[in-house]
Every structure is written in structure tokens, then in C-alpha cells.
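stage 2 :: seqdesign
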């Protein structure tokens, strides 16, 4: 079984409907629904939106842009990111490494998970030309060096790039990523000193947290990183400022992309380390607006709608994290112009936890058989799907629509 057919977390959706082979995509989600009348959840990828966002970020950021593959590993999404100018990929598993290398033989792949299996380190190094590894502990440094020091690996005759992950104080992001990963400053200083003579290039990395709305979070993190670098007394080649760059949701309105880049540029100047190269690892910011899912209403009970996707499918973040997503009705019959009302969703599984309270604003006369498009699901929508209760029959199409919500600074240019 090939990698692309294998039922892994980085495989495409099980049934991939696409007109790309004929040199075209659906002109809109509405036209797609009229044509296919889908009875299973259908993911709508917007390659143009993704490519435009990737291009905007690459233009604005003064360094190398590494797409965080975990955010959405769909091949159609990865190709759109590549078309937007991204040539570096932040991978968190050997499966992601394999997928990126298969799609893009010339890509630069960086293994940026702080805790890796020994077999993954060996395979990435020996078979996929991965040279950069992140770590946040002495034990992980020892593990990497032991695996790369084995005769088969050592034959390559080069040193690895080693990146020390720095823990940060709370930033107010939607998800705090320093609770699980990152060395405290004193430990990071010791790791930088230990890694310097062993590294072809040495870096310090951090992550302010997912969906961070505050541009000052990067300024403060870069200031802390500068203090750690100076205290270490060793030369650092790269400062990796991670991801966390936000996109718009109905109740989250991030500042324009330029505000983030202004703070990053000012913080870099304040470091006074002119030889230091910057990396960033955006995920959500590049692909969040680039996909939606079309679901069908199976039953209505007051203002709760039973739909054919849920928290075990594309809508995990609408459940546990209570994210609200833009939604619109794609009616099976002519609209009567009913006023909007607030709805919640029940997913298709038998689990009573499969609930998304929203609220999602839809016409008050929504009924069984209607379709609903739920947007801003390019980040973590597809890749968090499970086969729980057998509700894994989703498909994917490509459409030419703009994003359902546009984030300032990423809007596609008018043709």
C-alpha cells in the first residue's frame, strides 16, 4: 500500500472528488452543491486563497517561512502552499516527512517536534535528507547524537542543525504550547552551550501559542530569547519565532499581518545580532481561510441542528475549544428570506459530547435536507477527523471561492 493510500493521519480524505484532472475546479461552493448534492461531509479547498496567504506571508516576513504541516497535510493544501512560494516545511512526525519528500523532492524539511522516536530520527536523517532537529532537554540531545553517531548515519559525514526550544510565559493565545514543550531559560542556556560544538548550525526556537492575537507577544518572546542567547555566550545562527499567527473567526478579529511583522522587525533590530537569521513556522495563518466543510441537516430540534459532521470529524475545535466558525445556508429549495437565528449543532455520532454550541447564525427556517457551509476550517479541520462510529465518509473538492472570512493582510489581490 502506498503512502498516499495508507489510512494514516497525514493521508488524504478517503474519497477525493476533484475536477483538477480536467484542468478546472468548481467555480463556487454553491455550484458544487447544485452539481453533487452531497449526502456526506464535503471539504472544499480553496487553493487560490492558500497560495495568496502563503505569498503574502513570505513577502512580509524577513526570513525563511516553514509551513507547519500538522495544521493541514492534505496534498492539495501542500501544493497550494508550495505555489505560494513556501520551500521549507516544519514536520512533526516521520509520516509528515515522508509525505513532504514524496510531493516535493527539493523541499527543505525540518524535524521540529521536541520529542522524537529514535527510528524517526534515523530515517529522517538517512533517507529524507533532514538535517535540522529541535529539542528541549538533555535527554533528547543525547538521543539525537546517539542515533546520528551510529555507523550508518555517521557515514554521511556532517553535523546536524540543532534547535533548542525555549519555554515562554503565558501569552494569552488560544492554546498555550509552553505547558508541554520548552526548556526554561537556565536550561536553554545550558543546552545551547552543550549543543554548540556538536551542531552545523545552532538555533533557538519558541512558540507564542496557537491563535495569538497580540503582536507584542512576539516582541516579548524575542527579547527573552535575546537574553538567553547573550547569557549562553555562544554564537547562534537562527532564531525560530515559531507559529501562532492568527486568522479571523466570527468573534476573533486579529490585527493586520503588518502589525505582527512590524513588532518582529523592531524586536530583531533591538537584538543587535545582525548575523542572526529568522525563521517562522506559520500554519493556521497560511491555510485557515483556505477550506470549509459542507454538511447536511438531518434533523432539527428547536434551535439545535443534527448535522452529518461533528467533533469527531472536521469540527473538533468547535467542540472542545468552542471556536465559532462562519456559516451560511445552502438551501435545497428557494430561500424564503427568513431572519437569522442562533443555532447549535449536534454531530452524527451516538456520543452526547458530539455537540457544538456556537452560536452559528443561520436563517430561522433552516430544515432537514438543507446544506450548511462552515468556513475557516483550513487549519486542523481535515487532519483531526476520526473514524469513530464509522462516520469517516468525507470527500474533498477544490473551489474558486474567496475565504468566508478574510484576515487583514492576507487578502488576495484583485485580478
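stage 2 :: out
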Amino acid at each position: 500500500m502506498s503512502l498516499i493510500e495508507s489510512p494514516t493521519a497525514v493521508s488524504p480524505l478517503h474519497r477525493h472528488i476533484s475536477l483538477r484532472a480536467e484542468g478546472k475546479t468548481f467555480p463556487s461552493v454553491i455550484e458544487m452543491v447544485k452539481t453533487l448534492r452531497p449526502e456526506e461531509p464535503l471539504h472544499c479547498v480553496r487553493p487560490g486563497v492558500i497560495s495568496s496567504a502563503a505569498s503574502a506571508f513570505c513577502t512580509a516576513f524577513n526570513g525563511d517561512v516553514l509551513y507547519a504541516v500538522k495544521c493541514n497535510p492534505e496534498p492539495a493544501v501542500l501544493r497550494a502552499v508550495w505555489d505560494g512560494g513556501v520551500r521549507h516545511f516544519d514536520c512533526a512526525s516521520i509520516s509528515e516527512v515522508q509525505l513532504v519528500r514524496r510531493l516535493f523532492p527539493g523541499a527543505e524539511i525540518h524535524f521540529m517536534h521536541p520529542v522524537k522516536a529514535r527510528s524517526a530520527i534515523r530515517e529522517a536523517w538517512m533517507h529524507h535528507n533532514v538535517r535540522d532537529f529541535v529539542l528541549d532537554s538533555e535527554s533528547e540531545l543525547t538521543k539525537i547524537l546517539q542515533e546520528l553517531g551510529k555507523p550508518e548515519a555517521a557515514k554521511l559525514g556532517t553535523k546536524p542543525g540543532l534547535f533548542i526550544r525555549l519555554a515562554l510565559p503565558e501569552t494569552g493565545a488560544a492554546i498555550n504550547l509552553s505547558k508541554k514543550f520548552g526548556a526554561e531559560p537556565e536550561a536553554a542556556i545550558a543546552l545551547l552551550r552543550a549543543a554548540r560544538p556538536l551542531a552545523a548550525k545552532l538555533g533557538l526556537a519558541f512558540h507564542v501559542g496557537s491563535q495569538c492575537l497580540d503582536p507584542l507577544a512576539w516582541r516579548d518572546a524575542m527579547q527573552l530569547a535575546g537574553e538567553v542567547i547573550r547569557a549562553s555566550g555562544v554564537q547562534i545562527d537562527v532564531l525560530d519565532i515559531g507559529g501562532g499567527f492568527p486568522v479571523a473567526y466570527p468573534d476573533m478579529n486579529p490585527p493586520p499581518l503588518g502589525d505582527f511583522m512590524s513588532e518582529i522587525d523592531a524586536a530583531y533590530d533591538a537584538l543587535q545580532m545582525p548575523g542572526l537569521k529568522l525563521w517562522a513556522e506559520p500554519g493556521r495563518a497560511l491555510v485557515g481561510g483556505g477550506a470549509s466543510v459542507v454538511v447536511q441537516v438531518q434533523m432539527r430540534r428547536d434551535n439545535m441542528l443534527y448535522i452529518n459532521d461533528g467533533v469527531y470529524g472536521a469540527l473538533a475545535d468547535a467542540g472542545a475549544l468552542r471556536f465559532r466558525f462562519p456559516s451560511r445556508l445552502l438551501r435545497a429549495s428557494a430561500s424564503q428570506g427568513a431572519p437569522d437565528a442562533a443555532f447549535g449543532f449536534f454531530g452524527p455520532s451516538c456520543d452526547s459530547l458530539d455537540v457544538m454550541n456556537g452560536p452559528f447564525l443561520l436563517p430561522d427556517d433552516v430544515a432537514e435536507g438543507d446544506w450548511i457551509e462552515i468556513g475557516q476550517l483550513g487549519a486542523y479541520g481535515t487532519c483531526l477527523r476520526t473514524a469513530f462510529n464509522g462516520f469517516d465518509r468525507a470527500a474533498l473538492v477544490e473551489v474558486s471561492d474567496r475565504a468566508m472570512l478574510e484576515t487583514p493582510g492576507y487578502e488576495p489581490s484583485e485580478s
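stage 3 :: structure notes
- The longest helix spans residues 216-232.
- The chain has twelve helices and 17 strands.
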